[in-house]
Amino acid sequence: MPECSTWIRPEPHGIHVVPADAWIDPARPVERALVTHGHADHARGGHGHVFATPETLAIMGLRYGGAQHETPVAYGERVALQGGVFATYYPAGHVLGSAQILLEHAGDRVVVTGDYKRRADPTCLAFQPVPCDVFITEATFGLPVFRHPPIAEEIAKLTGALALHPDRCVLVGAYALGKAQRLIAELRAAGYTAPIWLHGAMERMCWLYEEHGVDLGELRLVAGAPKAALAGQIVVCPPSALNDRWSRRLPDPITAMASGWMRVRQRARQRNVELPLVISDHADWDELTATITEVNPSETWITHGREEALLRWCQLNQRRARALALVGYEDEDD
Amino acid sequence: MNRFAALIDALVYTRSRNGKLDLLAQYLRETPDPDRGWALAALTDGLDFPAVKASTIRALMAERVDEILWGLSRDYVGDTAETASLLWPEPPVPAGPPPTVAEVVETLSSATRGNAGPLLAGLLDRLDANGRYALLKLATGAMRIGISSRLAKVAFAQAFGVNVEEVEEYWHGQTAPYAALFQWAIGQAEPPRTDLLPLFRPFMLAHPLEDGTRLDLADYAAEWKWDGIRVQLVNVNGETRVYSRGGDDISAAFPEIAGSLPFPAVLDGELLVRGSHQGGEAGGAASFNALQQRLGRKVVSKKMLEDYPAFVRLYDVLIDGDEDLRQRPWSERRPRLEALQPRLNPSQYDLSEVISAPDWDALTEIRARARDEAIEGLMLKRRDSPYVAGRRTGLWYKWKRDPLTVDCVLMYAQRGSGKRSSFHSDFTFGCWNGDPDAGAELLPVGKAYFGFTDNELKWLDSWVRQHTTGRFGPVREVEKALVLEVAFDSVHLSKRHKSGLAMRFPRISRIRSDKPAHEADRIETLRALAT
């Protein structure tokens, strides 16, 4: 059994790398933070010194303004922290700039995945399995009912609904960082070339993606557009705006939502969704279990999500595992 | 099965009635027989496979999925069929092409307790997740997707451009997969025969009389509009049925009525309960509240029969013996009804009297004086009108008593659905349980989601947003500061509500933003109006 439990400690508000006096994705401001990706439940403002990929730093800069000190870490670059700890960032396939962090100390290798998925995503680099002793995995969709369908099927549902109702628009709720851009990029990949309309809250993140080389095609803002111009169009907004007064300016919108939770009918109905699109930036059950098998760590730690079921799976497969009780990681409408 | 599954899925996510109608009509038009007929039966609860139970599904899953993983999943999803549809281990290659609905029905009908599991498994292996969901829902007879039989009939009529009343009439004699009904609808066959079965005939209904309208009583006869439930009594071949307004067979709940029509006829009347309760005159009709004690029961105890004896106040005769009178004018049917009534036991049947009034003003006066709690208002029936299904302009009118009103304080608002999903459109309001200046509290007395104009709704919605004090999911609690004038048809004592009162047909009649909340009405004011 690895000895890492002495130098890497799960605490309620983050994972503490003790000899380096650094925290991974801490939920409150700390002196030294290693941040896996830009989602608000992982990347918070107010840290003294942030180590993250350049893309993640750019996203954090957009949201919080920069930190006092920033160290951009390229994928594959091995950074020496204090106390004899080395950190290497590997692509996690979750959103632009997302990373798993490999920590090495005293001969132990620990990988913290942050959030990840295994499906292809035109907006970020693919997840790369990294051999390790302890694998700290997310479990957002850690129930065997979650099996995400191929994204092409979901995109076809969206364009199909649009074709069926030329005088309505399809309003898609999608998380402003990652999901929205992936959805747009996948629509482009499927040959959808018409302008895609954005809620104002989406705008800056989309430009940031474009600056990082992700081509999203022609984007327009809904603000100020006449109602008639939006008939037969796709509009993307944050999930919180779906049933908000904002949506009254749209022509009889078909309410869609892009999220892994849409797999469960009741979850979709609770949100008044008419067109559920099962699109997720997290690993589904099959991806989680396949990844653990592939990485084949001697110990698996499971965090934020439905830990219990994945823990049970590890037991059934004779894998050493434990559930961490970290706080502050939300579902994020994902 | 895939088309049926797609229909089920679309229906689950479609909230508007018109949207559901379009989906259903399109499916019925485009799907071949007999699949569409079976689907229709499944959607309207017309299918039952006694060998397949929820426990059959659980047993299948227990063989395939770890018990703890199943339990965690089932808890999360909240529905056994849906959980199983998602967890089913799909064979790497489907075990065959997806079955048709007809094949599913055939297979499940032939199933026994012994082989239901393997048969179901064989079907599941040929479907994707949505198909499995539809199959399991169909197999266990629990669709619950908000399709009433009325909605299905309207969709059927829409699909084939036929009259919905005719659909209702012919539907009743048919069994799934309704081949004769579809043949008739597409113009390939005569309508199915209905005269030899105790079938429901669609009711004739009334339009509300608009304010200020005056009718000539030479053309219209007036009757009381009784506040019970509209029923149709059908006796054919020695068998009697009691049908409710929606065509549901409620004979079992009212055996004394069903057992006392001794000759072939189809009669229209109001089902009421004798009114020694609620202070009603002895032998007269009690309020709707008394009748409610008898509704919705599958079996009825002797005590119920004694405490709440039901009777029918007859309005009309549709068929007398083997003579269909529906095309005859009301003025001919009425004497036929009066002639037949003495052949019935007076403790179960009486006649709704025709009110004699010399002119409209006199009738207005009679209506204003009516305070019998079992009277909802007046009915005006054109003397030369045939008995036609549904609501036909100019033939029958209902002239309800003026509504009662009370000033209430808005307490909670809930977001609506569909078109109203961005508006708070369901309002719960209350009255004071004492002197508000001496620390009295508001108790909820009702909930209303109509009565206001679109502009008033916008105003209310923005008021709610600006005065929210608490949130409970889709419900907002608001500052107790806005007075709403609420109109309602009647109010009854009720043990179910904390205020002890229940309103019938409450609606928001005016927004009284001019009135301070402490001047709203008290519970006791409302209680004094209770019947």
UniProtKB/TrEMBL annotation, chain A:
Enzyme class name: hydrolase
Extent of the signal sequence: none
EC number: 3.1.-.-
Keyword terms, alphabetized: Exonuclease, Hydrolase, Ligase, Nuclease, Ribonucleoprotein, Ribosomal protein
GO CC annotation, single: ribosome
UniProt-recorded Gene Ontology molecular function terms: exonuclease activity; ligase activity
InterPro entries on file: MBL (IPR050698), RibonucZ/Hydroxyglut_hydro (IPR036866), Xnuc_lig_assoc (IPR026360)
Protein name as annotated: Ligase-associated DNA damage response exonuclease
Source organism per UniProt: Novosphingobium cyanobacteriorum
UniProtKB/TrEMBL annotation, chain B:
GO MF terms held by the record: DNA ligase (ATP) activity
The organism's place on the tree of life at top rank: Bacteria
Coiled coil: none
Name this protein carries in UniProt: DNA ligase (ATP)
Keyword Glycosyltransferase in annotation: no
E.C. no: 6.5.1.1
SUPFAM superfamilies: ATP-dependent DNA ligase DNA-binding domain, DNA ligase/mRNA capping enzyme, catalytic domain, Nucleic acid-binding proteins
Catalytic activity: ATP + (deoxyribonucleotide)n-3'-hydroxyl + 5'-phospho-(deoxyribonucleotide)m = (deoxyribonucleotide)n+m + AMP + diphosphate
A family per Pfam: DNA_ligase_A_C
